[in-house]
Amino acid sequence: xxxxxxxxxxxxxxxxxxxxxxxxxxxxxxxxxxxxxxxxxxxxxxxxxxxxxxxxxxxxxxxxxxxxxxxxxxxxxxxxxxxxxxxxxxxxxxxxxxxxxxxxxxxxxxxxxxxxxxxxxxxxxxxxxxxxxxxxxxxxxxxxxxxxxxxxxxxxxxxxxxxxxxxxxxxxxxxxxxxxxxxxxxxxxxxxxxxxxxxxxxxxxxxxxxxxxxxxxxxxxxxxxxxxxxxxxxxxxxxxxxxxxxxxxxxxxxxxxxx
Amino acid sequence: xxxxxxxxxxxxxxxxxxxxxxxxxxxxxxxxxxxxxxxxxxxxxxxxxxxxxxxxxxxxxxxxxxxxxxxxxxxxxxxxxxxxxxxxxxxxxxxxxxxxxxxxxxxxxxxxxxxxxxxxxxxxxxxxxxxxxxxxxxxxxxxxxxxxxxxxxxxxxxxxxxxxxxxxxxxxxxxxxxxxxxxxxxxxxxxxxxxxxxxxxxxxxxxxxxxxxxxxxxxxxxxxxxxxxxxxxxxxxxxxxxxxxxxxxxxxxxxxxxxxxxxxxxxxxxxxxxxxxxxxxxxxxxxxxxxxxxxxxxxxxxxxxxxxxxx
Lengths: 259, 311
Ligand SMILES: Nc1ncnc2c1ncn2[C@@H]1O[C@H](COP(=O)(O)OP(=O)(O)OP(=O)(O)O)[C@@H](O)[C@H]1O
Ligand SMILES: [Mg+2]
Known about the structure:
The complex is a heterodimer of chains A (259) and B (311).
Chain A: H1 2-7, E1 10-19, E2 22-32, E3 37-41, H2 48-54, E4 65-73, E5 76-77, H3 85-91, E6 92-95, H4 106-117, H5 125-138, H6 142-145, H7 158-167, E7 176-180, H8 188-201, E8 206-210, H9 214-220, E9 223-228, E10 231-237, H10 238-243, H11 248-254
Parallel strand pairs in A: 3-8, 3-9, 6-7, 7-8
Antiparallel strand pairs in A: 1-2, 1-4, 4-5, 9-10
Chain B: H1 2-46, H2 49-52, H3 55-60, E1 64-65, E2 75-76, H4 79-110, H5 113-128, H6 131-150, H7 158-182, H8 186-194, H9 199-210, H10 212-228, H11 231-236, H12 260-267, H13 276-310
Antiparallel strand pairs in B: 1-2
Helix pairs in contact in B: 1-13, 4-7, 4-10, 5-7, 6-7, 7-10, 8-9, 10-13, 12-13
Bound molecules: adenosine-5'-triphosphate (ATP) and magnesium ion.
Residues 48-49, 180, 210 of chain A line the site of magnesium ion (MG).
C-alpha cells in the first residue's frame, strides 16, 4: 500500500459524475504519477475540465453535481465526508484557463493562500516577504515586478498574470498542480515561457495539464490521457501515444479526424 | 396614396428634426431642471424668512417654539429636530446595514437559484409596502413590544422609529448590494476557493473588497431613505425635540425624538399660509433637500468610481 502512494499521487477509481441528469464522466479509472507532467487531451466537451475540477473538488460549486467512486490523493479518498475542501485545495493547486489574479496587489495575491492556512505567528512580515520573493523568482517574474509589488495584479500582462497565478500556489507547498488549458489566453512567446516553467516545476510536483493543443501535449507532457465522451480511452507515455496509439479512437483523434 | 402620405410625413419629420432634437435634449436635462425648479420653488415659498431668520438660533438651539404662549416671540431652533433625524438615521443604519448586507450575501452566494428568485420577489414586496403601513407597524406592533420589554410608558421613541426605518431601508440596500456582488466576476470566487479559502474568507477577503463601492453606495442610498422618510417616522418616533446631554447614553434609544420630515408634515397644516412659521418650515425643507442631494451625489460618485475600477 505504501508503495502505491509513492508510485501514484492520484488514483481515480471507477469515478462517475453527473451534472443533473447528464452523466459527464463514465467509470473513470486512472493513476497519475508524481514528478512528471500528465496531459489530458480529447475533443471539446469530452470531460477534461470536469475530471480536472474533480481533483480539487471545485466542481462542487455547481449545486447540481453528483458523484460516485473514489479519488485517492496521497493515499486518502478525497470524496470522504471528513475531508475538508480547504485543506485539499492547499495540497492540490489549480491554474485556470483565463488568468485570474485577484483584484488586490501582486504581493497579496502571492500570500493569499497563506493568509488562509498559516497561523498568525507564521505570517510574520519578513517570512512573507521572503516567500513572495522566492515564489516570484521561481516563475521568472521577480525582476519584472519587484518594484511594483503593491500594484494591482490585474494590471499585469496576461502572461505575467498567468505566471503570478502559478506563483501564488507555491507558498502553500502543494503536491499537485492542476492546469486547465493554461496557455489558451497567451501568445506564442507566452506559451513557450509557460511551457518552460512547467518543465522546471515538474520534478517537484505532480502536474496535470488539460490541453486542446496536441503539439503542446507532445512538447510538454510525459504521459498523456486521451478522453472521449466522458471516458478514458487511453493512457500511455506521450511519445508512445502519438506514435503508436493502442486504440483506434486515439489514432483517429491524433490524425485529426474529429475534435 | 400611401406614398403621398409617407412623403408628407418625411417632409414633416425633416422640418421637425430640430424641435424634436430640442425636445429630447430637454428630456435629458429635465432631471436637473426639476431639481433646480424644486429648489427655487421651496426657496420662493420660504421667502423672505432666509433674510430675517436668526440662523445661529436655527442651527444651535433646540427651542423650536413656533406657536408660543401669549406675549412671547416664536423661536425656531432646529437643532433638536436635526438631532432627531441624525439619530434615527444612525441607529436605523445599525439595523439596516448588517441585515441588508447579510441578506444580499445570502441571496447572491448561498441561496439556490429557486430560493434566490423567491427571496428577490419577497424583497420587492417589502419595498412596495407603503410607509403608512410601516408607521402602523411601529405604532401598534413595535410600540407595545417596546413598552413590555423595556418597561417604559410610551413605546414610540428613537428605537421604534429606527427599527421601522431600518426595515424600510433594507430592501433598497439588499437589491443594490446584491447587484454589486453579482457583478464580481466568478473567476475571483474560483481563484480564492482554489487557494483553499473558505467560503466566508472568500466573501470578506475577495467579494467585499471587489464590490466595495457598490456596497457603499447601497448603504448611502439606505441613509438617504432614512433621512427622507416621513410618515413612518412621524408615527413611530414620539415627536419631542430634546437634545440629549450625553449622545452615547443607550437610554436615549427609549427617548422620544422628532425628525425634520415629521416636523414639516406635522406643522404645515397648522401654519398660516405665507406666515413666518410656514416660511421657516420651507427652510427646513431646503435643509432636507440639501442633505438628500449631497447623499445622492456622493453615492453616485462612489458608483462611478466602482465602474472606473472595473474598466
Ligand atoms: N456546470 C455544468 N452543468 C452542466 N453541464 C456541464 C457543466 N459543465 C460542463 N458540462 C457538460 O459536461 C461535459 C463535459 O464538459 P467539460 O467542460 O468537462 O469538457 P472539456 O473536455 O473540458 O471541453 P473543452 O475542451 O471545450 O473545455 C460537456 O458536455 C458540458 O456541456
Ligand atoms: Mg475544458
